[in-house]
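so im writing up the methods section and need the Deoxycytidylate deaminase record in one place, dumping it here so i stop losing it
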Amino acid sequence: MLIGLAGPDCAGRSTVANYLIEHHRYRRVSIGHGPPQDLNVMGQQLVDSHQLKRECMRKQEYGYTTRPKSYFKTAEELCEYATLHWRDDMVTTDVLNITDYQTLSKRPFFLLVGVDAPLGTRLARYNNYAFCAVDARYADKDDFINWHESFYSSGGAEVLNCASVRILNTFKSVKLFEEHIKSLDLANPDRLRPSWDTYFMRLASLAAMRSNCMKRRVGCVLVRGKRVIATGYNGTPRGITNCNEGGCDRCNKATIGGQGLGTCLCLHAEENALLESGRERVGVDATLYCNTCPCLTCSVKIAQVGVKEVVFHQSYSMDEQSALILKEAGVILRQFSPPDQTF
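--- predicted struct ---
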């Protein structure tokens, strides 16, 4: 796996990288520059205090004697190397522009993780950095803000928005931050190639985007032998005005949940999928994935057509009743917990 860490300086990218190196035996790789330069020489050459400070940070990140085994001039060069060594686990903090991200993201072993922190928090870390060789803590607050804004003007924020996993580092200590990193399980292979549960639940969530019901978005996927039999989403039947266009009077009047169901014109996502497939296509080993736990009425129909297992993500008000019906009918019911993708 190749993990790229995107985000502004002092947000915690290097802490994440060091955690992966220490606890998961990742190797750090660099794009666009070589090992940190000699700071005693640089002190005479650099006018920009931020450039000097960054070199100080890099010196601490890479260490005096231990340096990354690999340096690459371009993202293309790293991409080629990582493809040949795809079994090696590597991490880089140098995905700094959208072009580099697009180059690396073509590979199935690449994961982009975004690391961010509030401006004030990053400024405090910047000023408290324990520098080596040169004390560069003479930049004022306005200088740091300008440095911060350059992250956005140079395309860094665009890369950050592409991250599959986003981390907000507001932690007061490295120890607390590392505990959070551990809980995210960034090295989990499912983040690169989703498990079957994740795959089908994402399809169900995508189907839910087609919902036209005014009350909630629900999507469903019916699967047999790891193949999709049918999909469904909730909304008014074919030929009837969409619910979100006034087709269902009950939903458009914002009727309290559980009341007036007899006058609702919307088909449920599970009903839609079952109607599209039919009992013969469902067979005896079908699994139904739904982003919301089936209601009592749908549970009865699920049991009738012979579905073997129901996997849901979000809870619903009738969970206990549905669970009893499905259990009595011999249908397995379980809740899906996806890998954490956010803060």
